Amino acid sequence: MRPLLHIPDGFLAPQVALALWVATAVVIGIALRRIGQRGPAAASQTILMGLSGSFIFAAQMFNFPVAAGTSGHLLGGVLAGFLLGPWAGSVVMATVIGIQALLFQDGGLLALGANIFNMGVIGTLGGTLVARGIAATLGGTRRATLLGVGVAAWLSVMAAAGFTTLQLGLSGTTDISIGLPAMLGTHVLIGLGEALISVSAISFIAVSAPEIFAKSAPTAPASPRRRVAAGLIITAATVGLASLFASTSPDGLEKVATDLGFINTSQAAPFELFADYSIPGFDGVAGTALAGVIGVLVVLLVIVLLNRLASARKGS
Amino acid sequence: MLQRSSQRDARGAIVAALLTILGIALLPAGSYVVYALVWLAVATAGAASGYAPLTLARRGLIALPFTLAALPLIFIRGDELIWSGALGPAQLSISGAGLRIFLTAAVKSWISVQVGTILVRRYPIESIVGSLRALKLPDAIATGAGLTVRYVELLRGEASRMLRARSARSASPVGETRERIGGTIPWRAKVTGNLAGALFLRAYARAGRVEEAATARGASGSLSLGSLIQPDARLFMKVALAIGAFVAITAAGALLPRI
Q1: How far is B46 from chain A (nearest CA, A)?
Q2: What residues 243-282 of chain A have any CB closer than 8 A to a CB of chain B?
Q3: Which of A37, A171, A211, B240 registers the highest number of CB atoms within 10 A of its CB?
Q4: Which 3 state secondary structure label does DSSP give A245?
Q5: Using only C-alpha atoms, what is the Rg of chain B?
Q6: Residue A50: which of B160, B131, B192, B154 has the closest Cα?
Q7: Cβ–Cβ < 8 Å for A111, A7
Q8: Structure confidence at residue B1 as a pLDDT band (50, 70, 90)
């Protein structure tokens, strides 16, 4: 089972493909400028990036059997980003994805901007920042770093799959309400394989070459404010993604009430804000996901207010 | 003097390939006559490059798995119904509009893959990287791509040897297939991750040696790997032809009938 993330030509509307080319060029341009600012070290960084590109190609040969006929593969975005830095990692992945498109026709040339955006920018740059953010939030220990890499590797695959589907939906070549759950459902396991391999690889490097690991891992824990912000983003993203898989069937009590015929005796709530997890103006999956994110924000607000109240009482 | 294949200027071909693929992408849905004409032109260019049309057509099927993404449109769009009925317990309907979008995406990707295939057939990847550098691809990417291409086979060889060693050290129980060798799934993932980690360390060490060798030879700053050595004298003519082909494809898409 290989990820379906390399969009071929013909599936994206030209305006979507060109917009993503522009977005990718801007981000990769920033990445190149950041790498260039390293001065003389930039040349050795470029050599390491080139060899890392070969490494990603070769490491994609590694797989492990998961179940009958399926196997886990490495994409390597978060792994490259974590070991080389998010900017250099995204340039390496852009190079690898470009060579895959040119040499193996794995992904289109017009769609190359979209493919680099999904896997190199969102998957690698975003994934590495998430990995570092989680590691710093949890105290910057080795265990926290490995946890961060694992979560980020899984998320990078899921996010790339989600963005791929959204772009296909915008181009009119898929139906988002069907395509998104199908793509995310398929990539849940692929992402798990990516996470397991990435964590094991980093763990191996941490033991075998601690100096390389030390250069990559965050050294100081994040401030409490950044921890709260990181926690909020992770929770909102998780709830937003999980709500895509929410069942539309009635819950246990509703089912029993329907079966036994007393569902009609229930009384309506005195007020309705987001009845049945729906938001006016947002139909279906998007409304449910947004309702989940709003729920997270409301819970956070309540916790912050209670915390302030408790602090004020303690002070007085 | 004959040019080495890795020195050939591929700029005209790259521009032509990109404009052709852009032209195909801009074709309206259902322009099957134009798709057929474009494919004939691509197959002719393929034959001129030594690619048999059927081999080229088979190569184009590489993007076929991705058509799954567009498949549901055939059944979920309710417009232009061409069939509706029961298939066992399920009610199914086939939408003409959905079928048109599906076929359009599939055919466009099929032809576009063939265009890319011809480009790589005519020009080796080193030549393409050098030409991209001449087309102002940033130095860090061009040098990185040049190094990636140069060392990919070496590291793939390393990876193959590591995989062979893994197989040699894994005993297969009687009655079990090789797919089932080893412990739990996390254990297998850990072993695979260890292989990836070990391979990265080898790549890291190799990068150090490459840098030392480059420094010893007097290199400083950019390695300028993947440079174009001899520019094509007929570049402007090729680019003009590519633009002409793009205009012809888009004009045919606008003028010829759709189904």
Answers
A1: 15
A2: none
A3: A171
A4: helix
A5: 25
A6: B154
A7: yes
A8: very low
Tokens 């950044």: give the residue: A226
Contacts of B66 in chain A (CB under 8 A): 4, 6-8, 11
**What span, in angstroms and rounded, lies between the C-alpha atoms of B235 and B217?**
34
Q: What is the pLDDT of residues B72-123, one digit of tens each?
A: 888 887 777 888 888 777 788 888 888 998 999 999 999 999 999 999 888 8
Instruction: Give the single-character DSSP code of A279.
Output: B
> How many CB atoms are located within 10 Å of the residue A170 CB?
16
DSSP secondary structure of A129-195: HHHHHHHHHTTS-HHHHHHHHHHHHHHHHHHHHHHHHHHHHHTTSS-HHHHHHHHHHHHHHHHHHHH
CB atoms B148 and A68 under 8 Å? no
**d(C-alpha A295, C-alpha A297), whole Å:** 5
Query: What is the secondary structure of chain B as a DSSP string?
Result: -PPPGGG---HHHHHHHHHHHHHHHHSPTT-HHHHHHHHHHHHHHHHHTT--HHHHHHHGGGGGGGGGGTTHHHHH--SSEEEEEEETTEEEEEEHHHHHHHHHHHHHHHHHHHHHHHHHHHS-HHHHHHHHHHTT--HHHHHHHHHHHHHHHHHHHHHHHHHHHHHHHPPPPTT--GGG-SS-HHHHHHHHHHHHHHHHHHHHHHHHHHHHHHHHTT--S----S---S--TTHHHHHHHHHHHHHHHHHHHHHS---
Q: Retrieve residue B232's tokens.
A: 């094509």
Contacts of B106 in chain A (CB under 8 A): 10
Beta-bridge mates of residue B85: B92
DSSP per residue, A84-105? H-HHHHHHHHHHHHHHHHHHH-
CB contacts < 8 Å between A and B, how many?
Answer: 287
| CB-based contact B210 A101, cutoff 8 Å | no
Question: Is B25 in contact with A12 (Cβ distance < 8 A)?
Answer: yes
Nearest CA-CA distance, residue B36 and chain A, Å: 15
Extract the tokens encoding A270.
Answer: 């005195």
- Cβ contacts of residue B56 below 8 Å, gap of 6+? B42, B43, B46, B114, B117, B118
Euclidean distance between CA atoms A248 and A283, whole angstroms? 13
Nearest by Cα to A83 from A139, A141, A132: A132
| Min distance B117 CA to chain A CA atoms (Å) | 7
Residue B245 identity: A
Phi, psi of B93 (to 5 degrees): -140, 145
User: CA B113, CA A54: separation in Å to the nearest integer?
Assistant: 23
Model pLDDT for residues A18-73, shown as the tens digit of each residue: 999 999 999 999 999 998 887 777 778 888 999 999 999 898 888 776 655 556 67
Instruction: Tell me if B3 sits within 8 A of B231, measured CB to CB.
Output: no
**CA angle A77–A79–A82, rounded 5-degree value:** 105
Percent of chain A with pLDDT over 70: 90
